[in-house]
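Chapter review: from sequence to fold.
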Amino acid sequence: MKQLTKALTVISLMAGLISGTQALAEPFKVGVCYDLSKAYTFATPQVSQAAMDLAKLINMKGGIGGEPVEVIVRDHGNEPQRGIECYSKLSREGVFVFDTLSTPVSLAILPRAMQDERILMQSLVGRGDAVDGTVFEWVYPAGPTYWGQVANDIGYIKQLHDGDLSNVKVGYIYFDYPFGQEPIEILQTLSEKEGFELLLYPVPLPGSDQAGAWSKMRRDSPDHVISWMLGGAHVVASKEMQRNRIPMDKYISVNWLNEVDIANIGAEVAIGLKRGTNVVGGQDVDLRTEIISELYDKGQGSGPLVNTQDVYYNTGLAMYSIIFEAARKAADLQGLPITAHSYKAGLESLEDFDANGLMAPITVTAEDHGGGGKTRIEMWDGETWVPQTDWIAEYSDIVWDVVEESSSKYEQ
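The token string follows.
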């Protein structure tokens, strides 16, 4: 197999043999329509590299039920129309499982996937009400949605205040476009229920201009700050916090904050900073250890080794462990070849799946396509991330009330 380039513009993976000489059967294909050139390049190389590595490892072991895995990666540049073109082209090539890692692109593809009865994986992106499988039959936000994740953040803050949020101020700083706007409805609902004051601080893309928001925050003096930003915007936020003398331990980030961000902020400066996550950080992860031994130590890795030392690589391993485990389930339940309908049944049979301790356990059903919405809060201590909670899913009843109210308004 040819060495894959950093460009990751067109990547097709097929590897492995059965019984040494017999070629594998028709591949199970996954369409990875990602932003590899613009807004999300802080994460997409690591996530897509993890997908390719996991596919290689599976194929080395004979594939899934004798069927190889083929991961097809294309660049949509975070542009909805290009995402639609990626989806349409790969659909014609027989792909029926898609992942976009982009909220705008996921929103654009969703109606088409629903109509075409193809699987749209939506882990960590997209509309929060898509967990409602009774409405969004072909969409799977397996893992925590932004709604569930922010509810868990509030649950954690409530623990810090001995169960009483009535005199607490919670600031929410966010990119003022769909990714950042997504959690606001849940925050407003929880504010009404728990009595905390919710303060909103929108920030224009790409997050380089936050001075006004943090100056206002200095005056408002929230007790905690939940952040829904990405990449370098965290670094800008840390500088503004220092300038405005706002303690770092007030900051609770969305899951999109990694080792590169910590290095750019400064390991010592970042002490006390927190993030929500659904994957285990660090390099001492069983699946990563196996991949390093079987691929990278033998010169067969899908990209630079440094990418595997990043929590976004672990995130990719978690996401694609779900995708490939569902394929295994489909093959076990209904045999080969795997179809969109058998794959759907495979997804909906996942129970307490955690990829051998890599991630929060998920249980997917026909009604709940999210899997339970568990995350945990971690704090940076200057050297590593220290869990502050167990895997938690707070306010599930309230989140589901909002989910069902929202999903009931969806018209295909």
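Two observations follow directly from the output. DSSP finds 13 helices and 15 strands in the chain. Confidence is low (pLDDT under 50) at residues 1-24.
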